[in-house]
Design a protein that fits this description.
247 residues; 5-stranded parallel β-sheet; single chain; two-stranded antiparallel ribbon; alpha/beta
Length: 247
Amino acid sequence: QVIRILSLGAGLQSTTMLLMALNGDIERPDCAIFADTQDESVATYAHLDWLCEHATEKGFTIHRITVGKLSDTIPVGRDRSHKRFVPIPTFGDRGGMGRRQCTREFKVDPITKKVRSLLGIAPRKRISGIVAESWQGISLDEAHRMKHNREKWMRNVYPLIDLRMTRHDCANWLTRNGFSIPPKSACIFCPYHDKATWREMKLHRPDEWARCVELDRRLNVRGEYLHRSCQPLDTIDLTTPEDHGQL
C-alpha cells in the first residue's frame, strides 16, 4: 500500500491543499510533514500552530521535523566534498547567485528520511517499487516547477494542478470557506525576497529585520550578500515614489 504524504510549507498553496483535504473537498492524505528550518517568520509559526491544532481536531497528524537552525550553519556549512560554502543562494560581489543547498538539506532530505521512518524502512535499505506519494503544493500558474521525485520509490503528486487551481483560486477557496490568507512562507533572510518583502519586514517586523542585517554582515565579510545589489542590506534604499510625495 502506498503512503500519501502532504509536503507542508505552510504557505498559500500547501495550506489550501491541507484544508481542502480536511474539509472533504479532496481525498485526505495519510499525514503531512513540515520541515522546519527554524528561521521562518513569527507569523508563519503562528499560522502553523493553528494548522496543527485544526488538524488535530480533525483527527489528522502533522509531523514537525527539523535538522537544526539554518542560520546557525551560515557561513560554516560544508558540502559532501568538505569544501566550505554558504548553504543559501547568496549574491556574490563577483556576480551571480551561489549554490542553493538549503532546500535539499533542510527540507527535502529530512522529509525523505521521515517518510522512510514512517514506512519502517531502515536507512540505506533498498526499496522496490513506488511505496510513497509526496503531495506537492504547486498550483497551475507554477506548473513549470513540476518534476519527478529523485527517489525512485516516491512519486510526486500535484492535487492543485489536477484541479486546475491557481494561486488566485487558492485564495478564493480559503476566503469562501472562512479561512484567512496565510503569510508567505520562506526563511526570513531568503535572498529571493523582492524589494516589497524587504521593505515590509523593515517597516513592520523590526526584530526579524535586525536578524537579517546581522546575518548579512557576517556574509559581507566573505563577499556575499542577501540583496541582489551586492550591497549591505541596511544600506539599501527601500523607499517608494509614494514615500517621496508622488501620487
